Amino acid sequence: MDVQRQLSLFIKDFCAAQQLDEVLPIESLSFATKKGTKQPADYRIFVGKPAHRVLRPRLKLLADELLKVSASWPVPVAKCHFETSSPYVGVHLHRTAAFQSLFGSIFVEHTKKTLHVCRQKALIFVPFLDKSFSAVRTEKLAAYACACYLEQDADVTLYMSRPALVTRQSNGVNLIPCIAESEIDTATDFRSVVERCKYYDRDTSTFSLRSYLDEQGVDVSSNYDPNVDSVHVESSAFVTMRLLAQISRGCMSEPLTLLFVVPDSKSFAAQQAGLLFEMLFLQQFLGGDVAPKVLYLTHGGCVEPIDCSFETYQSARDNYIREAFRRPSTEPSLSKRSRTAEDVFLEGEGGTKEDIKSSVAVLVETELALDFLSSRQNLRMKMGERLGCAENGHYSLQYTAARIAAVLEKYELAVNEGAYPALCKLEEADFSLLNLQPEWMLWHRLSICWRLLLEPSPATLHGNPIKVEVNAHALCKALEGLGSEFSAYYSKVRILVQPEQHLLKTLCARLWLLKAVQKTLQRILRRFGLTTLNKM
Description:
Number of strands: 16
């Protein structure tokens, strides 16, 4: 459900019907509302250009048509308003229908189709790793790509050239152990494959990648590095291809998606190895129902900080969180004698030392994952600027998850004690009672999160069918926005109101809202390879 996309398609058709060459732009106003405005428009359509004057007399027609057409949408438009002095047409959504539609898609599990004879196979290949910050970013992006393919019910295999530094492998990923260069197979049948390749020149012991691409009709300048030409059999690219051929044997029973994950500095070598592999081994699958794909996920790497290793950086994050447990508690109910947050956790929450150790590990993993995935994929990360920012980390997301879990647990305990009735079914909840602006802002935040979650990923770049992006930074930004919005809502609105009859329907609607935020947090954090904390 993408309301803005439906609006855009409607406006495109309307402009075509009115013989207007330019499509009217649509803006979301959900996060730029003016103070004091009770119900600002959710979207606005700009009609202020001189070329739009022809539409001014037809704005009522636009509004009437939009109301009529949107009546069949999952989230219809409730009203449109415009003034002659304003260059905008305001669009208000039907809020009750919006909550019902969004929550329905969040909580109703869609049955996976089993019509395909075989699952899609994806091999994530990470050949160039060391212990630098750039390598950690490569590792994180590879793990994120694995999670994306797993959500598409793919059979995912991962190879990394060294054991992971910080990433726990997701359940369901087939992990291939590291293979040293000396262990790469040099069997006779492999050499015969090389000898039979028509792009191989025995005199120079090189492969002509350019000839292969020209014969395939590929525009090298728009897809590949312009320097792609010939590759010698003793080059690092050829060694990488031999490694890839060896580890892919278990995946080659059918066409697969092969994804290289490398920093920009290794992009050229990865393309050479990928083309060698394609011409030598993937040609056997051409002409089938599904063509094999060789894709490249490249990133901007990291500007390495001076005199700081990744281990030092990781240790600083760990120490900061451990020290947080030893700080004086701010609990007003405690005596003034020295009492730390750790004491409160152990005594008040019934936790153990192992619980604290586990919580610290999760918080460090959260910070590291979001630290390395929150920047645009094509930009270089300046790690030196991040070293002194431990106190401004992403820990608050786990705090939000723990706070929601605590509220829901408190409610369940009250239900067991008979203080509250059990939560009604989703279809029985009255979402018209979610009439506060902060609740509507949460709807917008949730909508953005799920739109990003359901987008195809990894997705090929526009104009380049071999390079992909995963947009992890956009999902990270949406997650942070959801966490901030919920914190603002929680500070203003009491969820567990008095169990009086006239308040119970509002209570149920708000609990479903909490559950929607909780499930969204869990789903996104799982995409990042993280678990959520129930106590903090």
